[in-house]
Amino acid sequence: MDSKGIFNIEMFIVMIILLILFSMLLSFSIEEFSALDETQNRKESRIIVSDISEIINDVYMKGDSFSRKYYLPEKINTQTYVIQINDTGVFVNSHYQITYSQILPKNILKSKKYVLIPGYVYEFKNNNNSIEIIKYD
Questions:
Q1: So what's the pLDDT on residue 38?
Q2: Measured between alpha carbons, how far is residue 83 from residues 30, 74, 89, 131 in Å?
Q3: Among 72, 121, 123, 132, which is disulfide-ready with 136 (CB 3.0 to 4.6 Å)?
Q4: Dist CA 55 CA 61 (whole Å)
Q5: Are 82 and 36 spatial neighbours (Cβ–Cβ below 8 Å)?
Q6: What pLDDT, on a 0 to 100 scale, did the predictor assign at position 3?
């Protein structure tokens, strides 16, 4: 009778230790998945920023009246974002993470600052060696 009680206490202690280990493992896994999610956000932001700065540089280099269109995705990895373009470069703010890419020629934008809204098509047009960004619905 005494050995049954000890066996039950030992099983109870083992179960508590296993529960603690399982919760620690679960917590560590959640942290890793959130880090992977943030890395994916940064990667997709970097791709968008690079694409836009490449388009601006290409449109400028190809001369007057050259244009290219670009569709901004609705979200970056299920996160909302905002794109700002000014004379220094292209910036993406996605869930408090800012990604930046420089545009080669300075002072080429027709407006000092553009804010691009996701989910629309934008045309980047060279108008007398000044880049104009036009939003399409």
A1: 82
A2: 29, 12, 11, 16
A3: 121
A4: 10
A5: no
A6: 62
